[in-house]
Design goal:
The protein has 22 helices and ten strands. About 60% of the residues lie in helices and about 10% in strands. The chain is elongated, with a radius of gyration of 35 Å. It is an alpha/beta fold and about 575 residues long.
Length: about 575
């Protein structure tokens, strides 16, 4: 079950520090206000000097305003930088948590490379939104305050400016719309390049073995012309807006100054007021500042929109129940799971008695790994339900679910801690004794002790084969414990002897609980208590391996390999 309630839009939030954002708005507005007072103070000072009247107080007032503007600008810079950093960090944590809560569906929809691009680049751009809003508010307060100041000097001056203001407003509106469109396109193409690079990095061995480095480089960089076009369009939009504003703004300024000159000739205003009016005309037509602030806000909003797309993907919802005492009986009832339009699992009914080992076998594409994922709620069925000791998994709390079900995978993710930390990853307080016991069950203890620092060796510094990595993953699953242990092809890289020993430990209960084992080798299936044979997304048969082995089609699942001959007598020879 998933929740369909989407979180609030990122660009509609104040972020993690509303108080800091409010402080930035106040500082920016105060700086703009001081800037609006300065022309009036300069004009008054000039009038006093021309009249040869005492002007010391007004000179000091002008100096104080200049100093105040400098201090407020410095405070605005510091507040803006820290707010950007805090908001970006908050957005990244929020997005990372949501991606992990959504699970594999997030990667399937967006791709790992595009998710990284959103988490790194787009989050940084979206993190500037609160600062951009504060700056835009201050940038808007400047022209509005300047028009008011012109009206206070003379209503005619404000009327002259307001006559041309609609033209400027239309220019800014068109700029904001066009900028948003081309920035969104630019960021989308960046995500495609990042996704292609991620795929190439993941398949670097295949690329190198095939000698197709040049072809892959060309594939990764194929969207570059689109990126270039989107980037050039951004510059063209900004250049056009700046050019148009440069053509309109000086005309308005000249109009204001000309009318002020006429009013001066008629003794309606003073020389100082003409000086103030000329400065207010410049502030009122400060379209260049507005263009820059609108462009920054458009980039932030476009990036926030890409984050919102990820947040719109619903996270997995959990219930409030806990498991009753029980042996770990697993039951799948009418499970249907689709990938695209295809039903990979189609009406699967399966029961695994508590404390037993069930091997799941089938040809490639039969749905084995998806069944393993559904069994532990790493994937959601489209229909049907999965129960553990009679309780539907969707009704369990998150902690109860993850505490009760352990996993081991074909390629375990080792996340960079020490070997001991990696084995005890799922435990709230792993004990060394439990970690070492799990390593011995997984036959990993011997090679771990040979590492430079034993269990304290960082996994990044631990030379190991694919089979040794798989044994560490198995040790992690054994240390986790729980009622159900799901092994999704977790023995595939082991040598035959080690696989046989671990399979024997699973069957004998050395790993504890109920075991669901995706198997590709007949000898592994032979050691399980029972085998579920998947064919075309359905359970074709369930029974002991030696009974199923009588079917030629079942034997064909294992490809007629030599080990299959041994499996004819139970696979234990």
């Amino acid at each position: 079950m998933t929740t369909r309630t989407s979180p609030p839009a990122t660009h509609g939030l104040l972020g993690p520090a509303p108080a800091r954002c409010l402080a930035l708005c106040l500082v920016s507005t105060a700086s703009t206000g001081a800037g609006l007072l300065l022309p009036a103070a300069l004009g008054r000072t000039l009038d006093l000097l021309l009249a040869q009247a005492p002007a010391t107080r007004w000179v000091l007032c002008c100096a104080a305003l200049v100093l105040l503007i400098a201090l407020l600008d410095a405070a605005e810079t510091v507040l803006g930088a820290t707010l950007d950093a805090r908001t970006t960090a908050w957005l990244r944590r929020r997005l990372a948590r949501h991606v992990l809560a959504v699970g594999p569906r997030a990667t399937a929809r967006f791709g790992p490379g595009d998710l990284v691009a959103r988490l790194v680049g787009n989050a940084a751009q979206a993190g500037t939104a609160p600062t951009a809003r504060a700056a835009l508010l201050a940038a808007l307060a400047g022209p509005v305050g300047a028009v008011v100041a012109l009206g206070l000097i003379s209503p005619w001056l404000a009327a002259v400016f307001l006559a041309g203001a609609p033209v400027l407003a239309l220019l800014l509106r068109a700029f904001a719309r066009d900028t948003r469109e081309c920035v969104t396109r630019y960021q989308e193409v960046q995500g495609r390049i990042a996704q292609a690079l991620s795929e190439a990095v993941g398949g670097h061995r295949t690329i190198r073995a095939a000698g197709t480095e040049d072809r892959e480089t060309a594939r990764i960089l194929r969207p570059l012309p689109e990126l270039s076009e989107a980037g050039h369009r951004m510059w063209r939009v900004q250049g056009r807006a700046s050019g148009q504003s440069v053509a309109v703004a000086p005309l308005l300024q000249l109009g204001v100054v000309a009318v002020a000159g006429v009013l001066l000739a008629r003794h309606r205003v003073t020389v100082g007021e003409v000086l103030a009016a000329s400065r207010y005309a410049v502030l009122a037509t400060g379209v260049g500042v507005l263009v820059g602030q609108l462009g920054g806000l458009a980039r932030a909003r476009a990036a926030a929109g890409r984050l919102d797309e990820v947040h719109a993907e619903p996270a997995v919802a959990h219930g409030e129940r806990r498991l009753p005492p029980g042996p770990g009986r697993l039951e799948l009832r009418g499970v249907i799971a689709r990938r695209g339009a295809r039903a990979v699992l189609d009406g699967v009914d399966l029961v695994v008695p508590g404390g037993t080992t069930l091997a799941v076998v089938g040809r490639s594409g039969a749905g084995k790994s998806l069944l393993a994922a559904v069994a532990g709620r790493l994937a959601e069925p489209d229909a049907g339900e999965v129960l553990l000791d009679g309780v539907p998994l969707r009704e369990l709390t998150h902690d109860e679910l993850r505490r009760s079900i352990g996993y081991a995978f074909e390629r375990p993710a080792l996340l960079g801690g020490t070997v001991e930390e990696e084995i005890g990853l799922a435990l709230p307080s792993p004990s060394p004794a439990r970690v070492r016991a799990a390593a011995r069950t997984a036959h990993a203890d011997d090679f771990v002790r040979r590492l430079p620092d034993g269990y304290d060796t960082l996994v990044d510094d631990a030379p190991r084969s694919g089979g040794e990595s798989q044994r560490l993953g198995l040790a992690r699953a054994f240390a986790h414990g729980g009622r159900l242990l799901v092994l999704d092809d977790a023995l595939s890289s082991l040598d035959t002897v080690t696989e046989a020993r671990i399979a024997e430990a699973l069957v004998s209960g050395g790993a504890g609980g109920t075991r669901l084992l995706v198997a590709h080798r007949a000898a592994t299936a032979a050691r399980a208590d029972a085998v579920a044979w998947l064919d075309g997304g359905r359970v074709r048969a369930v029974g002991p391996h030696e009974e199923l082995w009588r079917s030629a089609e079942y034997r064909a699942v294992f490809g007629g390999r030599a080990e299959g001959a041994d499996a004819s007598d139970g696979g234990l020879s």
